[in-house]
Write a structure and sequence with these properties.
Elements lengths: L3 E4 L17 H9 L7 E5 L7 E8 L6 E7 L7 H7 L7 E6 L2 E14 L5 H5 L9 H35 L1 E3 L2 H21 L9 H4 L8 H29 L5 H15 L3 H7 L2 H23 L2
Antiparallel strand pairs: 1-7, 2-6, 3-4, 3-6, 5-6
Helix pairs in contact: 4-10, 5-7, 7-10
Length: 304
Amino acid sequence: MYSRILSLKDYKEVALTIPAFVLDEARLEEEMQRLANPYIQWEEGNTAVAGDIVICDMASENTRFSKKQVKFVVGSGMFQREVEALVEGMKVGEQRETVTEGGSIAVTLRAVKTRYVPPLKDSMVEHLGLEGIYTLRDYRDYLLGVQKKKALDVIRYDLLHTIENAVLRESEFVLYKEDWQLLVQQELDRCRAMSRREGMVLEEMTPEQFQGRIPVKSYAELVIMTQNNCWDSLRRYLLGCYYAQEDGFSVGESDYEEYIRMYCTQWHEEEKAAREIQPYEIFRFNAYCSHAYDVWSRYIEENY
């Protein structure tokens, strides 16, 4: 490839508006408390409180509420609300009465199962089997990182394209037509291989056949879209190669072989077809294009 970079805009100089991360402390604590879920126990209790499982006998002229050994969770709202409210605070053996639209109900509390949640311990974290995470402090930091990543993922796309547009706009490239034409041809060949797998001829595909596969309505539109995309991707490739020289990133045959194995597994494809659809040249080109995004993405993460 003869195309090259003449001058490069430093992505670190691109003005970005990165909102400050706001920790959802309540969400973090909720996730921490989930550690105790496998260790929760139910113990015999005496007084019913919200969250307890109770067993009651009920007597009423309304047959719907004249039952024995009725089990429900106090305060859950899953049973008769008036009865749940009545039971809260009752002691085992105590009887109370309430009146509902269906008539009066006499309730006798027969048993209480109280939910016991043990205090959080480092051993609970160890049993999760997360690599490098062994203590409650480690786990809290891990959850913080997960929350931060989710928040960053919401804004990452826009930030990446802000950097990309600025770098492409303010850098200078020497782009050879032959390089661009080669990329266009490789991408069209890839599309041909994919269409052949489905028994179609790319140049003859109808708008209905393109629908759901490629966002065009004809082969002519596909060519135009591919030409436009390859012009930008050629510049991204050059940027990725430049960054790779700085950070030591490289792509080789072993990476491609691993990719093909994963591709065949994921898409249930035969190896020969996978290599036709994703030849090494396209894999390598896309890997360096993606490396540019990876470099910018790491920069965003470091500054979030």
